[in-house]
Amino acid sequence: MKYMLLRNQKPNYIYNVEVEKWQIDLAYFGYNLKVDGLFGDITERETRKFQRDMHIVSDGIVGDQTRAAMETLRRTKVQIYRRGSRGSMVTWIQQQYLDRGYKLAVDGIFGPETERITRLFQQDMRIGVDGIVGPITLEKLKQPFSSLPDDNPIETPAVPPANPPTSKIKVYIDNGHEPGNVNGGSQGYKEWEGNLKSARYLKEILDSTNKFDTMLTYDWNKTASVRQRGNQAASWGAQLLFSIHSNAGGGSGTECYYSIRIPNDRQYAAILTEKVSKEFGIPNRGAKTRESQTTKGADYMGIINSAQSGGVKHILLVESMFHDNANEEKLLLQDSTHQKLAQIYAEVISNMF
C-alpha cells in the first residue's frame, strides 16, 4: 500500500488532512462535496463517481488505484464533463459530436441530450458507456473522424460475411434513419418509413440489372449510427454510398450532397436534382457540400466523412423533398413517388459506372 487508505469514517468522523487533500482534488475537477477533512457519505458518493469516471473499481475507498487515477488526471490537467457542466469546453465537445453526425444543440450546457449523445458515442467507440466525458472519451474526440476501434464497434447484428469474389459494382444503400425516428410531416408522413420505401425500390431495381451488388443499412443493422454506416460501406468495399433522406426546415425542393474531397461527384449530384425537380415540379436546390465547422476541408456530415475517410470512391446523400412542406408531403405519402424516385436514383447510379 503506497498511500494511506481512505474510506467512510461513519459513525466516528475525525478530521484527517489526507481526506481534506482528497476532497480538494475532487472539488477541483468538478465533484460536488464540502472540503472539511471528514470522510462521510457525500465524500464516498463523489469518490464512487470519480472511480466510475476513470473506469476503475467503484467502491468508494481511496486506495492506490484511485490515487494513481487522480494523479494521472492531475498530471494531464484533464477536466471531467458531465450533466450540469457548462462553458466553452462543453461547447467544443458538442461541436465534435455534431461534426461526427450526432444531432444535438451546441449551447455549452451539458444537459440530458448531451449525456445521451455521449453514451451513443462511447458505445460506437467501444469504450465504457457512462454518459460522462472523461480522459478516455476526450482522447477519442481528439482523434481524426475516421478513427474507430480496430475490432469494429458494432454491438448489434454482426457484419455479414464477405461475399464471394464478384465483378459486380457494390452499392451501399442507406435508408437515412432508424425505425421509430420522429422526423415527419403534419399529415402523417414518417421520414424513416419513406426513406426505407425508396431504398427498397432502389435495391430491387439495381439488383435486377445483374450489374450491381447492394447492401441496405436496414437489413444489416437497423440502429447503426451514421458513422457506423459510413464505415460499414467502406469495410464492405462499396464503390458508392447512396444515402436517402427527406428534408425539413420550412423550405421546398430537392438537393443532393457530395463529399468535399470527391469534387467529381458534383456532376452526378447535379444531374440527380435536375431529374427529381423536373419529374415532380419542385425547386432544384442543386448539388451541395457542407464543410465541418471545426476542421477545414473535412465533411460536416458524419456518414459522408466516415465513408470518404474509409475509401469509398463515390458518395451521394439526397434530400428528395421537404416533408414539412404540405404539397411535398402529399407527394411523399404516395407510394408511386418512391417508385419514381428510385427509378431516377437507379438511372443516375447506372450512368456513374
UniProtKB/TrEMBL annotation:
It holds the Pfam family PG_binding_1. CDD domains: MurNAc-LAA. It comes from the Bacteria. GO terms for biological process: peptidoglycan catabolic process. Keywords: Hydrolase. GO terms for molecular function: N-acetylmuramoyl-L-alanine amidase activity. Residues 230-349 form the MurNAc-LAA domain. Signal peptide: none annotated. One of its GO terms (cellular component) is outer membrane-bounded periplasmic space. InterPro entries: MurNAc-LAA_cat, N-acetylmuramoyl_amidase_3, Peptidoglycan-bd-like, PGBD-like_sf, PGBDSf. This is MurNAc-LAA domain-containing protein.
